[in-house]
Amino acid sequence: NAGVTQTPKFQVLKTGQSMTLQCAQDMNHNSMYWYRQDPGMGLRLIYYSASEGTTDKGEVPNGYNVSRLNKREFSLRLESAAPSQTSVYFCASSEGVWAEQFFGPGTRLTVL
Amino acid sequence: QQPVQSPQAVILREGEDAVINCSSSKALYSVHWYRQKHGEAPVFLMILLKGGEQKGHDKISASFNEKKQQSSLYLTASQLSYSGTYFCGTDHTGTASKLTFGTGTRLQVTL
After folding, report:
1. pLDDT in the model for residue A96
2. CB A42 to CB B87 under 8 A?
3. Rounded to 5 degrees, what are φ and ψ at A86?
4. How many CA atoms within 13 Å lie on the side-chain side of B110?
5. Is B103 within 8 Å of A40 when comparing Cβ atoms?
């Protein structure tokens, strides 16, 4: 039982490059989330998915797209990376919104 | 708006108690508490729901004052393992799908 896995763990991009962050969970959870965490800051929600095929914007969605491929997987895409997107990205899942969120180990992204 | 956490940082000796507060300027439906150790992912501690229901760990307690739009996390007889940054996430919609997290309270427990 791996819980929530994220790939890659580290990534360096140049401004304008694109990439997709992958997230998968093996707990059969319906809800999945993408957050970013900047130094000294709390978590900020980028996108949320209540179930396969549904997504909803969070607090900071600009510059990102998401795809809920199936119940297990929820990917985050940066179409044209900017230095302001340098951050640690966490994926999380939960059985429902009133349940604890289980977080993945994070992806540390640097945009030069 | 982001909830305000206080204190921003606290240093305790093992065995001492601490209280971490989380205040919001908007009505709260629930408050979610997480702890994050340096370089690691956040870990769930507790959910407090409007009406008084709590879901969480037995060794950590918390309160939720709906009228004051505040929540407090109580850490008693602190252990070294309690060290980390504590975040509250506030739910202002009643759906708990979009939490707004505070900037955290850094807790260090020393011998």
Report:
1. 85
2. yes
3. -65, 120
4. 3
5. yes
Cα separation, A30 vs A101, whole angstroms: 11
| Two structure tokens written together for A53 | 């095929």
- Yes or no, beta carbons of B96 and A97 under 8 Å apart: yes
Rg (alpha carbons) of chain A, rounded to whole number: 13
* pLDDT tens-place string over residues A21-59: 999 999 999 999 999 999 888 899 999 999 999 999 999
Backbone angles phi, psi at A60, to 5 degrees: -130, 65
d(CA A90, CA A16): 22
DSSP B12-68: EETT--EEEEEE-SS--SEEEEEEE-TTS--EEEEEEETTS-EEE-TT-EEEEETTT
